[in-house]
Structure formats: C-alpha cells, structure tokens
Amino acid sequence: MKALLVREHGPIESLTLAEAPDPQPKAGEVLVEVRAASINFPDLLVIGGTYQKLPPRPFSPGKDFAGVVAAVGEGVTLCKPGDRVTAQIEYGAYAGKCVVREANCHVIPDSMSFADAAAMGLTYLTAHFSLVERARYQPGEVVLVNGAAGGVGLAAVQIAKALGATVVASVSSEEKAALAKANGADHIVRTDVPDIRESFRKQVYDAVGKRGVDIIVDPVGGDVFDASFRTIAWSGRVVVVGFAEGRIPQVKAGILLVKNISLIGLQWSDYRDREPQKVRAVQQELFRLYEEGKIKPHVMAAYPIEEHQKALAVVRDRKVVGKVVLLID
Ligand SMILES: NC(=O)c1ccc[n+]([C@@H]2O[C@H](COP(=O)([O-])OP(=O)(O)OC[C@H]3O[C@@H](n4cnc5c(N)ncnc54)[C@H](OP(=O)(O)O)[C@@H]3O)[C@@H](O)[C@H]2O)c1
C-alpha cells in the first residue's frame, strides 16, 4: 500500500510517500481501505517531533480517516467488510490501509461523503467534548470560541449553535469572520487589533453585555487566551484545548476563586482510548446533527495524497479555514 512515512522528525518536507506492507487486523480490529483522511494541526507537531505522544519511526501520521472495511478480525460485530466507516486513531491514517480497534470505528450515514466523514473526525469530537462533557454546557448559554475559523473552532461554532447557544467567535481576519458568521456565529470578535487585551473585552461586552461569556473554548492559547479570559462570566468555564499560537498561557489561581471560574483541560484522545462507549454515543449524535443539516464540515480543499505537501502547508501557514483533506485511491 501507499503510505506517507515519518522516517526522521522535521519539517513537513521530511515526509516521504513510499510503499509499505499492508497491515493485518488482529482479534477485535478492523482493516479499512482509506479513502479520505484529514489534516489536523497536531499532525504538524507529530511530524516535527514535538507532540506529547510519538510512536517509533518509521510510521504514518494522521489521526482520523474514512473508508471501506476490507476485513475484520476475530470477534468483531460492529461492522463488516464493505461497510463505509470513519475512525479515530493515534497515528496511521495517511496510508492506503489502516487497522483500527473496533471500538473506535463507526459506520457512517449513507448521505455522508468520505471527505466529510474524515473532516468531522477529531475536530468535531473535540469540540463536542469541550462543550458538553467538559464545560457542561446548559441550553441558552453564551459560548465564546477562539480560533473560530479553524478545525476545532468552526466545529465548536456549529455544535454550540446546534445546541442553542449564543455564539461569539474570535478570529484574525475578515475572511475568517465571514466564515464563522456563515456557520452560525452570532457575534464576531477580531483579534487582529492593536490592543487585544482591552479591545477583545470591549468587543465581547458590546456584543453580549458586561456579564460576559459562560463558556470559552480555546484551541489558540497565547495572547488570545489571555484577552478572552477577561471576558468570562461569574461561574464560567474555560476549556483549554490547545496552543496553536505557540505560547502556553499562565493563569493566577486567585482569579478562579474570586469569580468562581472553572479552568478545565481536555485531552480528547484519552476519551477515545479510555471511554470509547462515550465517544460512540457522541459520534452518533454528531451523525444525527449532520443528517438533520445542523452541522456540516467546511472542507476548504481536498488534495490527492501525492500532493500532501500542499495540504500540510495550508495548515502550517495558518491559511486553513475549516478543514483540509487528503484523498487516497
Ligand atoms: N485537546 C485536544 O484533545 C485537541 C484535539 C484536537 C486539536 N487540539 C489542538 O487544538 C489546536 C487547534 O487545532 P486545529 O486542528 O483546530 O488547528 P487549525 O485548524 O490550524 O486552527 C487553529 C487556529 O488557531 C489560530 N492561530 C493563532 N495563532 C496561530 C498560529 N501561530 N498558527 C496557527 N494557528 C494560529 C488560527 O485562528 P486565527 O487566525 O483566527 O487566530 C487558527 O484558525 C491545536 O493546538 C491542536 O493541537 C487539541
């Protein structure tokens, strides 16, 4: 099979497209012919060697994919050869075939394309777990999403809107603002401003009032996190999802006490590995929302695997809006 391989960690140019042996499913595993896999920001960290979990080299990166079941190992009952599925894994999606635990493999609706299914993998599950499992979203609350035109961000905007929230979206450009609005954001906060610390809070207060926001979903970190933290309402919840900006913010514990704020972490892959039944239930809810037309991934571009450099560069260069997908024959 074709596979993108990390032989040595480095820039995206260090990836090579090569022939690799087909994997074989063991008991409880499913072998899938991959048709589409999505690029996620963490893939760049994995390729670069700075991600928290790294497999032995050589390996294929890629954390979510969709395709057709080619074979199943002993004891598998949740899918069968020929089924159209999507799955989430730690690595290995950028290849012609991929083996996944049955527990992490989900049959997709007939109406869903492989590209949409792959694009709805890690980011939509992360966004849903941020809002519901971690922040305990209550109907009608005000949700602020940072990096709202990115993969996790746009998914959070759509899901929060589908759940009935008032959605405030922070973004760094006019193009990203338009996309967030088109996907359900009620209010836009611009982060490409001279004094982000003061301007961010003013924009939020002008939009939703001085009470501020009940929940912040933050995949960005850095100055955006710091500025947005000042807009949290009494008894609000802030979910730390990632640090795309590069700087891990610091929070003084005193402010948590004074405003009854909950600062909450999310490492979604732990749910995938420890509580797959919970993930399955959320995945079914996401499929239902998709079929009802309430959520739909924005696939800005789909590239054949041979053009993986172009696909990865879009994410590396902060040009991605929504999702970029790799297509595999
Ligand atoms: N905790 C988890 O389980 C989990 C799961 C998935 C992803 N993540 C993390 O979540 C973060 C976002 O992932 P994603 O796939 O949504 O990424 P993405 O599609 O690239 O979006 C990231 C957003 O962050 C903002 N940003 C600010 N500074 C940036 C910079 N220097 N470079 C790139 N983006 C920058 C951009 O929005 P503006 O231009 O509008 O600022 C961009 O839209 C990453 O840190 C990723 O590792 C965590």
Put the structure in a nutshell.
This protein is an alpha/beta fold and 329 residues long. The chain has eleven helices and 15 strands.
What does this structure look like?
- This protein is of the alpha/beta class.
- 33% of the residues lie in helices and 26% in strands.
- The protein folds into 2 domains: 2-120 and 297-327, Quinone Oxidoreductase, Chain A, domain 1 (Alpha-Beta Complex), CATH 3.90.180; 123-268, Quinone Oxidoreductase, Chain A, domain 1, CATH 3.90.180.10.
- The strands form 3 sheets. Strands 3, 4, 5, 6, 7, 14 and 15 form a 7-stranded mixed β-sheet that branches. It has a 6-stranded parallel β-sheet with strand order 10-9-8-11-12-13, sandwiched between helices.
- The protein is globular, with a radius of gyration of 20 Å.
- It binds NADP nicotinamide-adenine-dinucleotide phosphate.
- NADP nicotinamide-adenine-dinucleotide phosphate (NAP) is lined by residues 40-42, 122-123, 126, 147, 149-153, 171-172, 176, 191, 219-220, 241-246, 266-268, 315, 318, 320.
- NADP nicotinamide-adenine-dinucleotide phosphate binds at residues 40-42, 122-123, 126, 147, 149-153, 171-172, 176, 191, 219-220, 241-246, 266-268, 315, 318, 320.
What structural keywords apply?
seven-stranded mixed β-sheet, 2 domains, binds NADP nicotinamide-adenine-dinucleotide phosphate, Quinone Oxidoreductase, Chain A, domain 1, six-stranded parallel β-sheet, single chain, alpha/beta, 329 residues
Q: How are the SSEs ordered, and which strands pair?
A:
Blueprint (H helix, E strand, L loop, with lengths): L1 E4 L10 E4 L9 E10 L2 H8 L15 E9 L11 E5 L8 E5 L3 E3 L6 H6 L2 H13 L7 E4 L5 H12 L3 E6 L2 H9 L4 E4 L5 H13 L4 E6 L3 H8 L2 E9 L12 H7 L2 E4 L2 H7 L1 H16 L7 E6 L3 H9 L6 E5 L2
Helix pairs in contact: 3-4, 3-10, 6-7
The structure holds NADP nicotinamide-adenine-dinucleotide phosphate.
The site of NADP nicotinamide-adenine-dinucleotide phosphate has 30 residues, from helix 1, helix 3 and helix 4.
